[in-house]
Amino acid sequence: MVEAGISRGLSVIDAFTAATGNRTLERAHKKELATAKVAGMKYQARLQSLRFGAFAGGGVAVSSGALAVASAAPGLWILSAGGALLSLVSIRRWRRIGARPVVRNLVPPAAPLPRGAIGRESVKRYTTVRTQVVNMNSSISVVHPDAGAELVNADSEAAGALNALCERLLVLHQLAASLPGTAAANSATNAAGVVASRLDIGCDSYDNLLAAAAELLASPDINAVVNLQPAADSLIAYSHGLMRASDL
Protein backbone atom coordinates (compact mmCIF):
# COMPACT_ATOMS: atom_id res chain seq x y z
CA MET A 1 0.00 0.00 0.00
CA VAL A 2 2.85 2.34 0.84
CA GLU A 3 4.54 1.60 -2.48
CA ALA A 4 1.27 2.24 -4.32
CA GLY A 5 0.90 5.60 -2.56
CA ILE A 6 4.46 6.55 -3.44
CA SER A 7 3.86 5.52 -7.04
CA ARG A 8 0.73 7.66 -7.24
CA GLY A 9 2.60 10.58 -5.70
CA LEU A 10 5.40 10.27 -8.22
CA SER A 11 2.86 10.11 -11.02
CA VAL A 12 1.29 13.35 -9.83
CA ILE A 13 4.74 14.99 -9.69
CA ASP A 14 5.57 13.75 -13.17
CA ALA A 15 2.28 15.06 -14.55
CA PHE A 16 2.83 18.47 -12.96
CA THR A 17 6.41 18.65 -14.23
CA ALA A 18 5.35 17.68 -17.73
CA ALA A 19 2.55 20.25 -17.77
CA THR A 20 4.90 22.98 -16.54
CA GLY A 21 7.63 22.05 -19.03
CA ASN A 22 5.23 21.97 -21.97
CA ARG A 23 3.55 25.27 -21.10
CA THR A 24 5.86 27.32 -23.33
CA LEU A 25 5.34 25.01 -26.30
CA GLU A 26 1.58 24.87 -25.73
CA ARG A 27 1.40 28.66 -25.60
CA ALA A 28 3.45 28.99 -28.79
CA HIS A 29 1.32 26.36 -30.51
CA LYS A 30 -1.93 28.12 -29.59
CA LYS A 31 -0.51 31.45 -30.72
CA GLU A 32 0.42 29.99 -34.11
CA LEU A 33 -3.05 28.49 -34.49
CA ALA A 34 -4.67 31.82 -33.64
CA THR A 35 -2.40 33.70 -36.07
CA ALA A 36 -3.15 31.24 -38.85
CA LYS A 37 -6.89 31.49 -38.16
CA VAL A 38 -6.86 35.31 -38.28
CA ALA A 39 -4.80 35.32 -41.49
CA GLY A 40 -7.22 32.87 -43.09
CA MET A 41 -10.26 34.91 -42.04
CA LYS A 42 -8.73 38.14 -43.38
CA TYR A 43 -7.90 36.47 -46.68
CA GLN A 44 -11.41 35.01 -46.99
CA ALA A 45 -13.05 38.36 -46.15
CA ARG A 46 -10.90 40.15 -48.72
CA LEU A 47 -11.68 37.53 -51.34
CA GLN A 48 -15.44 37.74 -50.71
CA SER A 49 -15.30 41.54 -50.86
CA LEU A 50 -13.58 41.50 -54.24
CA ARG A 51 -16.00 38.90 -55.59
CA PHE A 52 -18.95 40.98 -54.46
CA GLY A 53 -17.46 44.10 -56.04
CA ALA A 54 -16.83 42.31 -59.33
CA PHE A 55 -20.31 40.80 -59.63
CA ALA A 56 -22.27 43.68 -58.09
CA GLY A 57 -20.42 46.27 -60.14
CA GLY A 58 -20.99 44.29 -63.30
CA GLY A 59 -24.68 43.91 -62.50
CA VAL A 60 -25.10 47.62 -61.84
CA ALA A 61 -23.27 48.47 -65.05
CA VAL A 62 -25.43 46.19 -67.20
CA SER A 63 -28.77 47.06 -65.63
CA SER A 64 -28.08 50.81 -65.54
CA GLY A 65 -26.87 50.75 -69.12
CA ALA A 66 -30.01 48.98 -70.26
CA LEU A 67 -32.22 51.46 -68.42
CA ALA A 68 -30.23 54.37 -69.83
CA VAL A 69 -30.81 53.13 -73.37
CA ALA A 70 -34.53 52.66 -72.72
CA SER A 71 -35.17 55.93 -70.89
CA ALA A 72 -32.40 58.13 -72.31
CA ALA A 73 -31.50 59.33 -68.80
CA PRO A 74 -27.89 60.67 -68.65
CA GLY A 75 -27.61 59.98 -64.93
CA LEU A 76 -27.98 56.26 -65.54
CA TRP A 77 -24.97 56.31 -67.86
CA ILE A 78 -22.89 57.74 -65.01
CA LEU A 79 -24.17 55.00 -62.68
CA SER A 80 -23.42 52.38 -65.33
CA ALA A 81 -19.87 53.70 -65.78
CA GLY A 82 -19.34 53.65 -62.00
CA GLY A 83 -20.52 50.05 -61.78
CA ALA A 84 -18.25 49.04 -64.64
CA LEU A 85 -15.27 50.76 -63.00
CA LEU A 86 -15.99 49.03 -59.67
CA SER A 87 -16.24 45.68 -61.40
CA LEU A 88 -13.01 46.23 -63.36
CA VAL A 89 -11.01 47.29 -60.28
CA SER A 90 -12.36 44.39 -58.22
CA ILE A 91 -11.51 41.86 -60.92
CA ARG A 92 -7.96 43.19 -61.25
CA ARG A 93 -7.40 43.04 -57.50
CA TRP A 94 -9.03 39.60 -57.35
CA ARG A 95 -6.48 38.29 -59.84
CA ARG A 96 -3.63 39.76 -57.80
CA ILE A 97 -4.75 38.58 -54.37
CA GLY A 98 -2.72 35.38 -54.69
CA ALA A 99 -3.15 32.06 -52.97
CA ARG A 100 -4.47 31.52 -49.47
CA PRO A 101 -1.77 32.16 -46.80
CA VAL A 102 0.34 29.08 -46.22
CA VAL A 103 -0.02 27.69 -42.70
CA ARG A 104 3.12 26.24 -41.16
CA ASN A 105 3.11 22.70 -39.91
CA LEU A 106 1.93 23.49 -36.39
CA VAL A 107 3.22 20.79 -34.06
CA PRO A 108 2.10 20.55 -30.41
CA PRO A 109 4.52 19.38 -27.68
CA ALA A 110 5.21 15.70 -27.35
CA ALA A 111 3.54 13.72 -24.58
CA PRO A 112 5.97 12.83 -21.75
CA LEU A 113 6.83 9.24 -20.94
CA PRO A 114 6.02 7.73 -17.54
CA ARG A 115 8.72 7.11 -14.96
CA GLY A 116 10.86 4.08 -15.78
CA ALA A 117 10.11 4.09 -19.51
CA ILE A 118 13.01 3.62 -21.91
CA GLY A 119 13.66 6.91 -23.70
CA ARG A 120 12.10 9.07 -20.99
CA GLU A 121 15.22 11.21 -20.67
CA SER A 122 15.44 11.52 -24.44
CA VAL A 123 11.89 12.84 -24.62
CA LYS A 124 12.61 15.29 -21.78
CA ARG A 125 15.72 16.50 -23.63
CA TYR A 126 13.72 16.89 -26.83
CA THR A 127 11.07 18.94 -25.04
CA THR A 128 13.80 21.11 -23.51
CA VAL A 129 15.57 21.88 -26.79
CA ARG A 130 12.26 22.66 -28.53
CA THR A 131 11.38 25.01 -25.70
CA GLN A 132 14.77 26.71 -26.06
CA VAL A 133 14.16 27.17 -29.79
CA VAL A 134 10.80 28.84 -29.09
CA ASN A 135 12.29 31.08 -26.40
CA MET A 136 15.31 32.04 -28.51
CA ASN A 137 13.19 32.77 -31.55
CA SER A 138 11.67 35.85 -29.91
CA SER A 139 15.14 37.32 -29.35
CA ILE A 140 16.54 36.27 -32.71
CA SER A 141 13.58 37.70 -34.63
CA VAL A 142 14.24 41.16 -33.20
CA VAL A 143 17.90 41.11 -34.25
CA HIS A 144 17.56 39.16 -37.49
CA PRO A 145 14.02 38.40 -38.75
CA ASP A 146 15.26 36.03 -41.47
CA ALA A 147 17.16 33.94 -38.94
CA GLY A 148 14.07 33.84 -36.72
CA ALA A 149 12.05 32.55 -39.66
CA GLU A 150 14.68 29.84 -40.25
CA LEU A 151 14.42 28.75 -36.62
CA VAL A 152 10.64 28.49 -36.73
CA ASN A 153 10.65 26.72 -40.09
CA ALA A 154 13.24 24.17 -38.96
CA ASP A 155 11.24 23.39 -35.82
CA SER A 156 8.00 23.11 -37.77
CA GLU A 157 9.57 20.72 -40.27
CA ALA A 158 11.38 18.54 -37.73
CA ALA A 159 9.02 18.38 -34.77
CA GLY A 160 6.44 16.23 -36.55
CA ALA A 161 8.90 13.39 -37.18
CA LEU A 162 10.46 13.62 -33.71
CA ASN A 163 7.03 13.71 -32.05
CA ALA A 164 6.27 10.48 -33.89
CA LEU A 165 9.34 8.91 -32.26
CA CYS A 166 8.05 10.02 -28.85
CA GLU A 167 4.69 8.42 -29.60
CA ARG A 168 6.40 5.17 -30.60
CA LEU A 169 8.33 5.15 -27.35
CA LEU A 170 5.08 5.49 -25.41
CA VAL A 171 3.44 2.64 -27.35
CA LEU A 172 6.47 0.38 -26.86
CA HIS A 173 6.55 1.12 -23.14
CA GLN A 174 2.86 0.29 -22.81
CA LEU A 175 3.41 -2.96 -24.72
CA ALA A 176 6.36 -3.99 -22.55
CA ALA A 177 4.50 -3.08 -19.34
CA SER A 178 1.37 -5.00 -20.31
CA LEU A 179 3.22 -8.21 -21.25
CA PRO A 180 6.13 -8.54 -18.80
CA GLY A 181 8.52 -11.41 -19.28
CA THR A 182 7.31 -12.27 -22.79
CA ALA A 183 9.08 -12.23 -26.12
CA ALA A 184 6.90 -9.31 -27.17
CA ALA A 185 8.06 -7.31 -24.15
CA ASN A 186 11.70 -8.07 -24.92
CA SER A 187 11.24 -6.99 -28.52
CA ALA A 188 9.49 -3.80 -27.41
CA THR A 189 12.32 -3.01 -25.00
CA ASN A 190 14.96 -3.49 -27.70
CA ALA A 191 12.97 -1.42 -30.19
CA ALA A 192 12.54 1.36 -27.64
CA GLY A 193 16.32 1.60 -27.27
CA VAL A 194 16.69 2.02 -31.03
CA VAL A 195 13.95 4.66 -31.21
CA ALA A 196 15.45 6.56 -28.28
CA SER A 197 18.84 6.67 -30.02
CA ARG A 198 17.18 8.13 -33.12
CA LEU A 199 15.51 10.77 -30.98
CA ASP A 200 18.88 11.62 -29.42
CA ILE A 201 20.32 12.22 -32.90
CA GLY A 202 17.47 14.60 -33.61
CA CYS A 203 18.20 16.42 -30.35
CA ASP A 204 21.84 16.75 -31.41
CA SER A 205 20.65 18.51 -34.57
CA TYR A 206 18.53 20.83 -32.43
CA ASP A 207 21.62 21.57 -30.34
CA ASN A 208 23.56 22.54 -33.47
CA LEU A 209 20.75 24.87 -34.49
CA LEU A 210 20.69 26.47 -31.03
CA ALA A 211 24.46 26.87 -31.06
CA ALA A 212 24.29 28.76 -34.37
CA ALA A 213 21.49 30.94 -32.99
CA ALA A 214 23.50 31.67 -29.83
CA GLU A 215 26.48 32.66 -31.97
CA LEU A 216 24.28 35.13 -33.80
CA LEU A 217 23.02 36.65 -30.55
CA ALA A 218 26.59 36.87 -29.20
CA SER A 219 27.90 38.66 -32.29
CA PRO A 220 28.92 42.26 -31.48
CA ASP A 221 27.66 43.40 -34.88
CA ILE A 222 23.94 42.72 -35.27
CA ASN A 223 24.42 42.85 -39.03
CA ALA A 224 27.14 40.23 -38.99
CA VAL A 225 26.42 37.27 -41.24
CA VAL A 226 25.85 34.12 -39.18
CA ASN A 227 24.10 31.59 -41.35
CA LEU A 228 21.62 29.34 -39.55
CA GLN A 229 20.63 27.60 -42.76
CA PRO A 230 23.16 24.72 -42.65
CA ALA A 231 22.10 23.73 -39.13
CA ALA A 232 18.43 24.17 -40.03
CA ASP A 233 18.87 22.13 -43.22
CA SER A 234 20.58 19.36 -41.27
CA LEU A 235 17.69 19.15 -38.81
CA ILE A 236 15.08 19.21 -41.56
CA ALA A 237 16.94 16.60 -43.61
CA TYR A 238 17.15 14.25 -40.63
CA SER A 239 13.44 14.60 -39.89
CA HIS A 240 12.57 13.99 -43.53
CA GLY A 241 14.78 10.90 -43.46
CA LEU A 242 12.84 9.61 -40.46
CA MET A 243 9.52 10.16 -42.20
CA ARG A 244 10.80 8.53 -45.38
CA ALA A 245 12.03 5.52 -43.42
CA SER A 246 8.68 5.18 -41.65
CA ASP A 247 6.96 4.91 -45.03
CA LEU A 248 9.14 2.04 -46.24
How is this structure best described in words?
Helix 4 runs antiparallel to helix 5 (145-178) and helix 6 (183-218) runs antiparallel to helix 7. The chain has seven helices and no strands. The longest helix is centred in the first third of the chain and has 49 residues, at 23-71. With 248 residues, the protein is mainly alpha-helical. It folds into two domains: 23-106; 109-247, no CATH class. It is elongated, with a radius of gyration of 28 Å.
TL;DR of this structure?
This protein is mostly helical and 248 residues long. It is built from seven helices and no strands.
Helicity level? over 70%
Large-scale geometry: elongated
Strand count, sense and barrel status of the largest sheet are: none
Quickly count the helices. Answer: 7
Unreliable spans? 1-5
Order of helices and strands: HHHHHHH
Number of strands: 0
What is the CA-CA span between the terminal residues? 47 Å
Determine the mean pLDDT: 78
**How many whole angstroms does the radius of gyration measure?**
28 Å
Q: Tell me what portion of residues adopts beta-strand conformation.
A: under 5%
Decide which structural class fits the backbone. mainly alpha
- When the domains are counted, the total is 2
Can you give keywords for this protein?
disordered N terminus, 7 helices, 83% helix, 248 residues, mainly alpha, 0% strand
